[in-house]
Amino acid sequence: MEDEQRGTRTRRRTAPTKGDLRERAILDAAERQLDTAGADAMTVATIAQEAGITRGALYFYFGSKNEVLAALVERTVTALRAGVDAVDDGGAPADVVRLGIERTAQMWREHGTVMRTAVELSPSVPAVDRAWRSAVVALADTMSGVAERAGVPPATAAPVSAALVWMTERVFYQAFLAESSLDEAAATLTHVWLAAFGVAS
């Protein structure tokens, strides 16, 4: 009986709260606004309207439009980091690189407007910049380990991986802006990553 009660308490703690669900709804609404109107046209009022709540209710969770955008970027980069980390199972470096680039391309397909906004707002919105840079650092750290497994000297694995991650951001960003093929961009990036790591494609 005690174990059953403990299990029930655990389930209650892990289930999303009403506040969690409301915050998720606000971020979902903000992403829809980015898709349809763009960041410049967004306001707290338009996000609240899209979410079906009042401006006052939105301010209970976020203090400004930029706070909403920063939280949206944080949610997106958390998913990106998790996707890339999931493919690094200690397998062959070439396979990890290919799958990591594929996961990143998929995130650009599904959340491209958020990622574009992150790139464009980073220079002027510190909270967005912190969230975006944290993703770059985490991804570079993951890929640095992959580089070392491929035979890249430890002293150069980290800076090379960081440079490649920033390059990847720029290539996908430009492909998204131009509405060109993300698959082609991914293929090019995969070739460059593998060449830099000195592994066969």
TrEMBL record:
Region span, Disordered: 1-20
Domain annotation HTH tetR-type: ranges: 20-80
Cross-referenced Pfam families: EthR_C (PF21313), TetR_N (PF00440)
DNA-binding region per UniProt: 43-62
UniProt KW keywords: DNA-binding
InterPro entries: EthR_C, Homeodomain-like_sf, HTH-type_TetR-like_transc_reg, HTH_TetR, Tet_transcr_reg_TetR-rel_C_sf
Name of the protein in its database record: TetR/AcrR family transcriptional regulator
